[in-house]
Amino acid sequence: MKYSYSTLDKARFYMAYMGHKLMVPLEVRQPRLRFALYEAMYTACKFLDYQSQLAYPFHDEVIVTRFGKFAIQRGTSDAAGVSPAYERSDVNYLHALTGRLLAQGRKVLFLDIGADIGTFSTTLLNRFQQPGLQVAAFEPMPRSFALLRRNLGMNGHEEGPRLKLFNCAVGEKVDEKVQVYFDPTAPGSSGLAHGSAANTQIEVEAQPLDKLVLNQAESCDDVIMKIDVEGMEIAVLNGARQILSSGRGVYLMIEDFVDASIINHMESLPSLRFLTKRTDYNSWWTTTKA
């Protein structure tokens, strides 16, 4: 199936988007009212300026939702990333896909590439307790990585055979040094793009997936990748050639709205076919034939 995101698909997304936003007061357990107010303010700012990143204005340091407990950094938009509404249609699709594979008795490896403070990894591990699920999370920014480890730990998930954490970027070459721009008010948006003039340029280590987790991937039946790397998407794919060609089922959720050329690149790879697009932000692809 060729890539498609029709007007009807967009309408469905925006209807789901507003529905998930309206559900926030029911799905956030602490602090319910303050978070609901922030969510309303954040959404309004996004409609006025899509590039805006409203910092959480209250003093709460931990947000508790139906998906887990999440520590956030003050003065940042981290709270938006731990909202139950955050990319919810993609989260629902991820959970449905993971649940279906696990129900078939398959061993699944989830690669959280650009994990930020751990929303996807924490949510998935909280949802599925089966030993058949393994998670590897990758985050190069030191402050975000510290919160990634803390958030997983607060939810009862420590590093071990089922969970591996990597404080590095994911790229194409072994032991590569990459210059990235750190956004102190929106750490999850840090990446190759310059962005705000206030951003700080820092050097981080990058390694290819084939070096970091090829053996782990080969021990599983299926690999699910979430790729949110703000400009390094193609490098990530180039560094995962062996995983993509391993013959295992590989499923990818890749951020495509920052750089629309990602779609052309994905369609050019003979091993991949388009699955679905549930949100404005990401699209889903797979190596499977069925």
Condensed summary:
The chain has eleven helices and 13 strands.
What's the topology here?
Elements (H helix, E strand, L loop, with lengths): L6 H21 E3 L1 H17 L13 E4 L2 E4 L6 H5 L5 H16 L4 E6 L5 H9 L5 E6 L3 H13 L8 E4 L2 E2 L5 E7 L17 E8 L1 H4 L1 H5 L3 E6 L5 H6 L2 H4 L4 E7 L5 H8 L4 E4 L5 E5 L4
Helix pairs in contact: 1-2
Q: How many alpha or pi helices? A: 11
The fourth-level CATH homologous superfamily of the largest domain is Vaccinia Virus protein VP39
- Listing every helix as H and every strand as E from the N terminus to the C terminus, the arrangement reads HEHEEHHEHEHEEEEHHEHHEHEE
* Percent in helix: 25-40%
Structural class: alpha/beta
CATH topology call of the largest domain:
Rossmann fold
* Largest sheet entry: 7 strands, mixed
* CATH architecture field of the largest domain: 3-Layer(aba) Sandwich
Summed up, the domain count is 2
Mean pLDDT: 92
Strand content: 15-25%
Can you tell me the residue ranges where pLDDT is under 50 for at least 5 consecutive residues? none
User: Number of DSSP strands?
Assistant: 13
The CATH class of the largest domain, by name, is Alpha Beta
- Using only C-alpha atoms, the radius of gyration works out to 18 Å
Determine the N-to-C terminus distance: 11 Å
